[in-house]
Give the backbone structure.
Amino acid sequence: MAESVVKAQDFICCQLCETEQKIKWKCIECELLMCDKCNKKIHPKFKNAKDHRIIDIKDVGIQDEGRGDNLDFTNIKCKLHQGQSCCLFCRNCDTLVCPSCVAKTHTGHNFVEINEAYTMKLDKLKKGQKKVEKDNLNITREEKELNQVKNIQDSKYSKAMEDVQTQKNALIKDVNAYVHKLSYDLNNKIKSIHDSIDTEKMKVENKRQILEKKTNKAKDIISITDMSRFFDEVDKLGKSIYQDIPPVSLKHHNMVKFVPGEITKSNIGSLQADDS
């Protein structure tokens, strides 16, 4: 019992100052638990305090074992009948009774001596105390288990967040690589088109030079006044001045366009229950 009382100090405050949790003493007469400071400064101010029995909290269980022999059960005043002292304990009503109570309201009830009722109440209280102590141990164990669960879930959270970032970096790397390939392909495509067009432009320039020569030749012939020479030059130029120039090719590879692909959650990943 002494060990149980000591453990109870963890959650019982001094019953005088109601703040200090380090219980050191108990007054048998006042039935108060006290800290060392209140035992020295507050309790001595009580009436007849010098006659009270103050025991170390560690000895409470030992004191309780013989407590019934030192208690006075003859001077308990009845709360209902003035001037009457309680003489029995009614088990039916779970209360102390005086002779008037027995005669008026407790006829035929089951009674026991007050000291016996005290023993029953004390035993029940001690059992309740043990239950509280057991519950406190259970709470401590549950708190420990909750902390373990929290640590496990925090660890899973960190791992999931790390995996998300890893997937993000992998996606960025793949996207950058694919964008680089698309840019490379686009550059090659436009270069091919430019090369094809430049080839036709060179043909155009060659044709322009031929036409310019024919134009200049025609101007020279038109300015000739020597008719013999005029007809000779006209015959030389002949039909070539009327020949059609073949058209250039305007059909080239068409430039491609970019069609965005669909970005879906399945491409990135998803969150799923982790039962491990």
Confidence is low (pLDDT under 50) at residues 1-11, 61-66. Residues 1-71 form one domain. The first helix runs from residue 2 to 8. The chain is about 55% helix and 5% strand.
